[in-house]
Task: structure prediction
Amino acid sequence: MRIRKTSQYIEGGASLSNVYGTSNENGYTQEYINELGTYSTDEVRVGTWANGKPVYRKLIYATCPNTNTNGTFVNSDIAIGSNNEISFIEWGYFVDEDSRIPINYSNNSGYMMKVFSSNPNTLRLFNSNTSWNGKDVVISLLFTKTTDTAQNTRSISNEEEPIEEEDNR
Result:
């Protein structure tokens, strides 16, 4: 089965790119396809991690910390959960009325705005540019939880499986 884009936009306002994919032999369910474009401040299950645990997505809205002097770093921590096992940033932007600056931005003057996951339950925001004091930050976070159990896990081994040789007599 091939999935073909028929619209630039999907319900909820997310936009699609010109990407086509092929499914496995069982095909994609409508529910799976609908969840691909789901962004919410509530956690939404969006897939399965390599260890078999569910992966969730959640939008985090925050405020850029205030610095008093350009070039002087300030930071603030944002709690993003209490039982996250693995968390990583899918994408993020510093946002004002006219601009969207990707997280982990620096310019030629040495000013920097940065966001990283200091542990699975905390994001740390850095700012050294007075122009961005108090501006909005939006982050799409993917994470797994310590409270979920793995499904369909596989053991990974460093041992190579023996290769069967053909008998060419």
Notes: Residues 91 and 140 are 5 Å apart (CA to CA). The radius of gyration is 21 Å. Helices lie at 30-36.
